[in-house]
From TrEMBL:
Similarity comment: family membership: Belongs to the group II decarboxylase family.
Organism: Pseudomonas asuensis
Statement: the UniProt record of this protein carries the keyword Lipoprotein: no
Organism domain of life: Bacteria
Residue ranges of the TM segments: none
This protein's name: Decarboxylase
Keywords: Decarboxylase, Lyase, Pyridoxal phosphate
One Pfam family, short name: Pyridoxal_deC
Phylogenetic lineage: Bacteria, Pseudomonadati, Pseudomonadota, Gammaproteobacteria, Pseudomonadales
UniProt keyword annotation of Chaperone present: no
Cofactor section: pyridoxal 5'-phosphate
Length: 478
């Protein structure tokens, strides 16, 4: 263990760039030679192989030039917690497999629900990530709506009612794809998700939400949930939660808030007000492994009314008999779609107990401030076109070459920039599309990244962009 810890410490401290730029086929060759039927000679060889096959070319989120996806560098108390929870290997499905672990998770769920303001009947459970939390939200919303239909007892026992094809989920056009995925998994299909237009700031357009609801009514469709996003994946935009909740209340609709990304604002000393209205939600997704600087996986799903979690409760004599519930034994499996489940809560627990919520929340504030300081650098530069005013910590923009090029050529230039940066390991940036055009994206979640780092990456983007354009025009004239 000590040798392994030394190896990882040396590796992490010695990282010079976020990525070596290795391509899949280059790394694959080394894997072809591994024979898993035979063990290696000794532990040194195991470590050497680990370095060669994984550590050497891994993508390092703690490097200041990793500015791509919603991955955060992680806080040290959480790493210690990983060691503890894996060593003890508690499983959080039942009390008789976890004891105190159950209360640690429950206390964190109660704390998060209180931070949201969900009220005294709230409850929830840790999940593997935002995708699973959103799936749970759609499952509960679906069953909540179906179980109210006359003549239909419950989805859990009878399956979906005959008119399930009329169910619809309303969410903004820039919400996370796990909403569509959930609809498919739940037997409703992608087509059950109606995209609501977003405004210039990439927030759900309320007039369009109203239009979609009116259309649903006119067509006899059954809106089963409105999914608002607090921190969209690309733009970090927060939907108008207060207004959406008023519409949901008026229409008696389930409101889910996907705060996988923006959930970190719950402990922000500066920007908590951006989540105003989240307290009206029927359910909420929070990803601690994004804006709470926790190792993957660490996430939660919360509901306003604890009884709704009954839609996923199933009793087994060997595990969680009903009699235990009657006796008051807290078996968390009654609230989860998983059975065996990691004690991920311990990471957040040790982090809060070591650092405190304010210090943790300040890390997220710091990257939001960094994003706001970077925005004018991009906005004022004629070589860049920025797609939005940032609200959290992403910047979506593209390089515009000096030469007059077609839209397709500008797209190709931006794809090439991203590849060139990744290949050189100079920086890892993300890419996305806005109105069908290719953009670059910074997701800033590393408090160690400085404005200087970002200025350097912007210069490198311009350099690679200009180089690509020259190369292409040289090829065209050959
Ligand atoms: C807004 C939003 N919701 C949900 C998810 C899915 O979360 P996870 O990757 O933890 O499953 C993401 C991931 O980036 C996200 O940005």
């Amino acid at each position: 263990m000590a040798q392994g810890a030394e190896c990882i410490k040396k590796t992490l401290l010695g990282i010079e760039k976020p990525y070596t730029g290795i391509l899949p086929h280059e790394l694959k060759r080394q894997f072809d030679e591994v024979n898993l039927d035979e063990k290696l000679g000794n532990f040194n060889e195991v470590l050497e192989e680990l370095k060669a096959l994984y550590l050497k070319d891994a993508v390092y989120f703690h490097h200041p030039h990793y500015v791509a996806h919603l991955n955060c560098p992680i806080v040290i108390p959480a790493i210690l917690a990983e060691l503890v929870l894996s060593s003890v290997n508690s499983s959080l499905d039942t009390w008789d497999q976890s004891a105190g672990g159950t209360y640690i998770e429950q206390k964190l769920i109660d704390w998060t629900a209180e931070r949201i303001g969900l009220g005294s009947e709230a409850d929830g459970v840790f999940t593997s990530g935002g995708t699973q939390s959103n799936l749970m939200a759609m499952l509960l919303a679906r069953d909540h709506v179906c179980n109210r239909q006359a003549g239909h007892l419950s989805n859990k026992t009878q399956g979906l009612p005959a008119d399930f094809k009329r169910l619809r989920i309303l969410t903004s056009e820039v919400s996370h794809f796990s909403v569509q995925k959930s609809a498919a998994i739940l037997g409703l299909g992608y087509d059950a998700v109606i995209p609501v237009r977003s405004d210039a700031r990439k927030k759900m357009d309320l007039a369009d939400l109203q239009r979609v609801l009116d259309e649903c009514e006119a067509q006899g469709l059954i809106p089963m949930a409105v999914v608002a996003t607090a921190g969209t994946t690309d733009f970090g935009s927060i939907d108008p939660l207060e207004d959406i909740s008023a519409i949901c209340r008026e229409k008696n609709l389930w409101m889910h808030v996907d705060a996988a990304y923006g959930g970190g604002l719950l402990i922000s000393p500066k920007y908590r007000n951006h989540l105003a209205g989240i307290e009206h939600a029927d359910s909420v997704t929070i990803d601690y492994h994004k804006s709470f600087f926790q190792p993957v996986s660490c996430s939660a799903f919360l509901v306003r009314d604890r009884h709704e979690l009954g839609h996923v409760t199933c009793h087994a004599d060997y595990l969680n008999p009903k009699s235990q519930t009657q006796e008051g034994t807290p078996n968390l499996v009654n609230k989860s779609i998983q059975t065996t489940r990691r004690f991920d809560a311990l990471k957040l627990w040790m982090t809060l107990r070591t650092m405190g919520a304010n210090a943790l929340g300040s890390l997220f504030d710091h990257v939001i401030d960094l994003t706001r300081a970077t925005y004018p650098l991009i906005e004022r530069d004629p070589r860049f076109d920025i797609a939005h005013v940032p609200e959290l910590s992403t910047l979506v923009f593209r390089y515009i070459p000096e030469a007059a090029l077609t839209a397709e050529q500008i797209d190709a230039t931006n794809v090439a920039i991203r590849k060139a940066l990744s290949r050189s390991g100079r920086a890892v940036v993300a890419g996305t599309k806005v109105s069908g055009r290719q953009y670059l994206k910074f997701t800033l979640l590393n408090p160690m990244t400085t404005l200087d780092d970002l200025q350097g990456i912007l210069e490198a983007i311009k350099h690679e962009g200009a180089r690509y354009v020259i190369q292409q025009s040289a090829l065209a004239t050959c």
